[in-house]
Amino acid sequence: MKLTLKVWRQKNSKTRGRMETYPIDGIDEDMSFLEMIDVLNQNLIKEKKDPVAFDHDCREGICGMCSMFINGEPHGPEKGVTTCQLHMRSFKDGDTIVIEPWRAEAFPVIKDLVVDRSAFDTIIQAGGYISVNTGNAMEANAIPVDKSIANEAMNAAICIGCGACVAACKNSSAMLFLSAKVSHLNMLPQGEVEGKRRVLKMMKAHDEAGFGSCTNTGACSAECPKEISLSNIARLNRAYIAASLTSEESI
Amino acid sequence: MSWITNFFTSSVGKKVIMSITGIFLCTFLAAHMSGNFLLLKNDGGQAFNEYAKFMSTFPLIRVLSIVTFIGLLFHAVDGIWLVLQNRKARPVKYHSFKGGANSSWTSRNMGLLGVIILFFLIVHLKSFWFEMKFGTIQYVEYGGVKYKDLYSIVVSAFSQWWYVLLYIICLIALSLHLMHGFQSAFQTLGLNHKKYTPIIKGVGLAFSILVPLGFAIQPIYVLLKSMNVF
Amino acid sequence: MKLDSKVPKGDLGDKWTNYKSKVRLVAPNNKRRIEIIVVGSGLAGASAAATLGELGYKVKCFCFQDSPRRAHSIAAQGGINAAKNYQNDGDSAYRLFYDTIKGGDYRSREGNVHRLAEVSVQIIDQCVAQGVPFARDYGGLLANRSFGGVQVSRTFYARGQTGQQLLLGAYSALSRQIENGSVKMYNRHEMLDVVLIDGKARGIIARNLITGEIERHGAHAVVLGTGGYGNVFFLSTNAMGSNVTAAWKAHKKGALFANPCFTQIHPTCIPVSGGYQSKLTLMSESLRNDGRVWVPKRKEDCKKHPNEIPEEDRDYYLERIYPAFGNLVPRDVASRAAKYVTDEGRGVGKTGYAVYLDFSTAINRLGKDLIAERYGNLFDMYHRITDENPYEVPMRIFPAVHYTMGGLWVDYELSTNVPGLYAIGEANFSDHGANRLGASALMQGLADGYFVLPVTIGSYLADEIRTAATDTNHPAFKKAENEVKTRLEKLLNIKGDKSVDDFHIALGKIMWDKCGMAREGKGLKQALKEIQELRAEFWKNVFIPGDAHEFNPELEKAGRLADFLELGELMVNDALDRNESCGGHFREEYKSKEGEAVRDDENYRYVAAWGYSGDPSKPELHKEALDFEFVELKTRSYK
Questions:
Q1: What is the DSSP code (8-state) at residue A77?
Q2: CA pair distance C224, C241, nearest whole angstrom
Q3: Which residue in B14, B90, B187 is closest to A104 by CB distance?
Q4: pLDDT at res. C372
């Protein structure tokens, strides 16, 4: 396959970036998208040029590190996959592919296609945990958990924190990410105990990080590589409204 | 009381305002639309003018209309605030953004649709409400009681084709606005359930087609009548 | 050097209890002043950092990824073992201990492994309390499955994403400590050296990967939870960034590296599809429960479509060679058999390095729906990657490097031979011997991090309460920082013609061909020479774009590869030293007439702990004899 790549190049967070065009040849349709970028980078290195910086690690769709905005969509045109699991057979010979970093105030560009997603960590640190010290746990089977609840919690817990939801959302809202974590923990009896505090603190962290509001477009869920449901956002809203009205703690 | 400001300035709180005011405005729309069907009564406007007087003098309705105004104001101001805030969340735009691949056009353009509707409301209020309240309006008498003749103002306005066209365009915007807004309001309030959400979506779709359609019938009827089509 | 394992005396089941009762403690007011550096944020690192923070220590945690949640523990699929005996099938800590010792082909310490089995039950309690959504039955209680060919169902799992859920649990505990200030997190930082003062580990040199700045960090102790070194093979199921650098720097500062040649090769991975391949993807070995492995009997048939090859022309070689276990032989045996048939030229697929895993018999017997229910997600993953539908065409699989049992030598307290330097999780060598059983890696990482290290480190730190905070202006820090900077400059100034990947691919090929699934003295000796030559060429001819003061992934890769180029040689030396076949280490010279591994317990029942002499080609061997008081050594047979 022969392709034309238009790639965002930006030296660091302080400089302005621009789109650069690179023709590329000899692409095998069985390659993953990142392997295609590897080829581009090897070519650039052979020409003694700076290769395109991009985040990637596990390359099996679970670490959440890869993060490319491909032809107007996070993780490219296929549904339910990360960039590393996107294969070149999803494109045609002669295609032009536009590759950009995630764009959000809360995700500043570090270099080229690499962005800083530590805002997600900040949200988790605000309450995305159950306060139990090591060794302080009761016998695992002491509290039975309804299988359907456990399943629903798992459906939320599979979030890989890649940020595609933010990238896809026209408001750069991180509600799907936030709601997945809140849903996962608040649904389980172990996590319900500090549920109000959790949702209030995490929402505050979300807003302070500079993410926008959810306007229920559904883009996040449609682009989520783990296909996390919008019902989590409703659950989050419910929990947040209830906690705001009933919690006596000031957060 | 800082928890109240905290709540309403949070990203969910802002949406809760949109949602509650939105649902309230929906009920207003339904009532307003039904009442206006009196325009179609072939009585020279008597029923309509009586209805208009009732609406502008009955105390409960007076209160409700003030609440509606406030609701509308909140909905508009909060909506504009939301749009501006949300724009700030993405200072650098994408070169290529394929929103259509993952969301409906209306859901992504609620702000634009809202502005069109707001513009319409200004025109609408200027033409009728302002005229009725502060304009030089004629009076008619039914059974010895004097009524402001709003009917004539409406008929003369709707006899202009461009005015009706403007109406129709704005009503399409309203319909699109409702298509997303109706079900979105429930989602924002956390009312999402496997069993009930499909019903809400169905009702929302019906509402967002029927209400603007109802509103559209009235000017079209008046226009056609003025052109002596029937 | 005399290696003291420090395993407590006493009965197997009492060792850990007695140890915990007597270990020295650090008072809370002192803990507040004691700093600990944890490098790595996987299951072991994150759980250790979180627990140490909860205990009140001042912790600094480092990871090279953009968030601690991305560490490669996240990719583990199958599950985590624990001797809960919820299924009432006769499981116990002793049985888990025994399975692990035997599975490791008797090359691990009894005391360590029994402790692992004991704390396994606490891990499950802890994880459930943290909100890990393990699979449950309709009664709301935890579900189990059997895994890795053992006779009991002791594996807890969260769909095919157990590693992810456990890591997110540890990450959440870590995040909680970061929020309350007891742990300071350094994302996108890579440890480039460990700093020793008066022979004790007192800090690290780290590079901020965004700015390129070299930073000094002091502490009272340094804990390495930096994972395994499977990427020495270039292609492996490890993440792209997984590397040996932290452990290797520790090794070069005096820490012994134990059993480096013990590598686990997993039989059911998606094969390489072309020269551009960057990484291999594992599919759960549960596939072999219903899939039948075969290759064509004749070379000429290899390029034919598999569905056109009639039954009589197929060689179901595992069923043929191992009639008793058939397709369910352990990982190492299945992997080696695949190597033999492909070496004979009977491999299939584009590259010839693959065998078929055929579900047609199972689909005919059980129906497509049942197969989809059991393996649907794996079939989908395979379909997505290869664009072939495994319901219709047999899967192609091939073994791939998956886990490294070797690592830094540690004693019972998880301390390396360098005082104040600890190694946990896959980074140490301790619990899996020569071969790791399925669902045991997650168990060991969390055992070390949550329950073992936070206790044992007290025994060292109790003597450090009078030690002031480490002065990072100490000459040792200056020296280490200068060495790091000099090395980076040296790498950048080579300005040769080949990319880092060119060298890495070449190293991977040497390692895979000569120190992979089967090793032979002659090939190993040749590998030594080839690695030395490659290393020399690397230092003359590598090209790294950019500079050291920016985000420069090529520079990061180059530094890691430079260490792999030294480690590779040590692995080969270790494989050459071990004149026996055991677990993941198979020497062609040491096999039975039937081609099975032959262990030499008399001469090689030891841990080979290698010291760094200053020359990577001349490692120093130290031996820790393994004494088996409680189990009897047996030969594994699957015929």
A1: S
A2: 16
A3: B90
A4: 87
Task: Tokens for A1, please give them.
Answer: 């396959």
Neighbours of C431 (CB within 10 A): 25
Distance spanning both ends of chain C, measured CA to CA? 42
Residue A91 CA, chain-centre distance (Å), reads: 23
* Collapsed DSSP state (helix, strand, coil) of residue C569: helix
Domain ranges across chain B: 2-226
Is chain C in touch with chain A: ≥3 Cβ pairs within 8 A? yes
- Strand C183-186 versus strand C58-62 pairing type: parallel
Measure the CA–CA gap between C610 and A34, rounded to whole angstroms. Answer: 38
Query: Is the confidence metric ipTM above 0.95 for this complex?
Result: yes
C278 vs A34, A110, A111: nearest CB: A34
With beta carbons less than 8 A apart as the criterion, state whether C128 and C55 touch.
no
Residue whose pair of structure tokens reads 């029994």 in the numeric block: C114
- Among A62, A197, A202, the residue to mutate for chain C (most C Cβ within 10 A): A62
Q: Please tell me the distance from the alpha carbon of residue C322 to that of residue C311, in angstroms, as a whole number.
A: 19
Of C193, C179, C236, C170, the closest CA to residue C39 belongs to: C193
B192 to A6: CB separation less than 8 angstroms, yes or no: no
* Number of neighbouring beta carbons within 10 Å of residue A44: 16
DSSP, res B199: H
Inform me whether the pLDDT recorded for C636 exceeds 80: no
CATH code for the domain defined by B2-226 = 1.20.1300
What DSSP state is assigned to residue B44?
A: T
Written as six digits, the tokens of C352 are 């010839």
- pLDDT (tens digit, 9 = 90+) per residue, C362-403? 999 999 998 888 788 889 889 999 999 999 999 999 999 999
- Single out the residue of A49, A175, A45, A185 nearest to residue A120, CA to CA: A175
Q: Which residue on chain A is closest to C126 by alpha carbon?
A: A137
* Active site residues per annotation of C: 331
Global pTM exceeds 0.80: yes
Percent of chain C scored above 70 by pLDDT? 100
* pLDDT tier at C438, thresholds 50, 70, 90: confident
Closest Cα partner for C446 from C434, C431, C458, C460? C431
Domains along chain A with CATH numbers: 3-110 (3.10.20.30), 118-246 (1.10.1060.10)
B94 and A218 in contact by Cβ < 8 A? no
Q: Nearest-CA distance from B130 to chain A in Å?
A: 34
Residue with tokens 């460990």: C194
